[in-house]
Amino acid sequence: MAVRETFVRRRAAKLAAGAGVLALALVLTACAGAAPSAGPAAGEQTAPSDAAANDTPQAGGRDLSEGGSCVDGEDIVIAAAGSSAVVDGPCGTVTISGADFGGNIESAESVEVFGANASVLGAEWGEARVLADGVTLNVDSVQRLVTEAAGTHLTTQRAGEIVIDGDGDGATVNGGEAERVMLNANDATVVLTAITGALEVHGDRNIVNWTSGVEAPTADTGAENVYTH
User: Fold this and answer.
1) How far apart are CA 138 and CA 119, in angstroms?
2) Is 29 left (phi over 0), alpha (psi -120 to 50) or beta?
3) Distance (Å, rounded) from C-alpha 183 to C-alpha 199?
C-alpha cells in the first residue's frame, strides 16, 4: 500500500511539473510572437493630409496658373495647359510648362517657356528662354532672349542680346533697340530701330532691317541673307 501511495505522489508531482513547464512555454511563445506596433514598412510612406499637400510647393516653385503675386523674387511655375494668368513681380525664375498659356508676367529674373503656343506679355525681364514652338513674347525690356524653337515672335522696345539658335527657324523680331543680334538659324526676320553693338548671322535666307547703329553685319557665314540699313 505504501508503495502505491509513493507511486501516486510521484506521478502527481510529475504531472504538476509538466503543467508548469507547458504554461511557461506558452507564456514565452506569446511574448516572442507579440511584435511591437510599427509604422509603415521600409520604403513605404504615409499619405500627407490634404492641408499638408496643398501647402507643398510644386517642383520649381508655387503654381500660379490662376495668377497671383511673386514674393521676394521667388520662383514660380505656370503648369496648367490653356491657363490665363496675370502675375505681379518681382519674380525669380518663371517656368511656363503648360501649352497655350496666355497672360502677363510683369517682372522676372528669368522666363523659361516649355509650353507650345504660349503668348506672354511683360514689362521687364532678365533672360527669356524659349524651348517650345509657336511662342509669342511681347515684353518692354529684356536683357537677353534665347530661342531654340521654331516660330518664335518677339516684340520689344529694348533688348540687350537676341540669340536665335539651332531650331529657331522662322523667328520674327520687331521692336526698338538691341545691343547685339545673333542669328544661328534660317528664315528669320528682324526689324529693329537700332542695333548698337554687333550683328552676327550664321544661317541662311535671313532678313535684317535696322535704322541706326552698326553699318553692316560683323559676321555673315550664311547664304542669301538680306540686309537693309
Assistant:
1) 8
2) alpha
3) 8
For the chain, the residue count is 229
Question: For residue 222, what are the contacts with CB-CB under 8 A and spacing of at least 6?
Answer: 183, 186, 201, 202, 203, 204, 205, 206
Q: What is the pTM of this model?
A: 0.73
Q: What amino acid is encoded at 72 in this protein?
A: D
Question: Concatenated DSSP letters for 150-219?
Answer: TT-EEEEEEEEEEEE-TT-TT-EEEEEEEEEEEE-SSS-EEEEEEEEEEEEE-SSS-EEEEEEE-SS-SE
Q: Going from the first residue of the chain to its last (229 residues), give the mean pLDDT of each consecutive group of 10, the final group possibly shorter.
A: 40 43 39 44 43 41 95 96 94 97 97 97 97 97 96 97 91 96 96 98 96 95 95
